[in-house]
Amino acid sequence: MLAWLGEALLTLLAVFGVVCVVAVIAAYFFGINIMLFKTGSMSPEIPAGSVALVRTIPASEAEVGDVVMVDRPGQLPVTHRVVSNEPDPANSPEGRIIEMKGDANNQPDPFPYHVDEVKLLFWSQPGWGHAVARLADPRTLGLVTVVVAGLVTWAFWPRRPEGENV
């Protein structure tokens, strides 16, 4: 019974590992990133503590109503809903002037953003941000590393043939 349970656990962990590797490769090739919401400016749809997946797109593809993240030089990025998206040929041929507003804010952001690309939010889950942040904690990573190393060692440790005594 215990051997069967161990084999099932190892199989489950192996499948999880393969899924993680495939997810990392897909994220790299499709430009997908994870982001955590620390403020409530996008509430109620995306409250503080949410986790979201975003992918990089040309700014010209962002439509009014889309939730996008824009980078700001020397500051943290901002993630709000697009209010307007106009060409900005003065800065670059692909450049856009995007005005945004947080769902929980009464007014649009004070200044428009001059950008060539944005990160489009395509999935979010409220409440998962804290768990994702915990996974990035060095103590959690250390514990997971020790547990996985122990399981791998146990899986490949030489076994005695059945009925052999020491």
From TrEMBL:
Protein name: Signal peptidase I
Gene Ontology CC: one annotated term: membrane
Localization per record: Membrane
Transmembrane segments: 12-36, 140-157
Pfam families for this protein: Peptidase_S26
Keyword tags: Hydrolase, Membrane, Transmembrane, Transmembrane helix
One Gene Ontology MF term: signal peptidase activity
NCBIfam families: sigpep_I_arch (TIGR02228)
Key word Hydrolase present: yes
GO BP term (any one): signal peptide processing
Location of the Peptidase S26 domain: 14-88
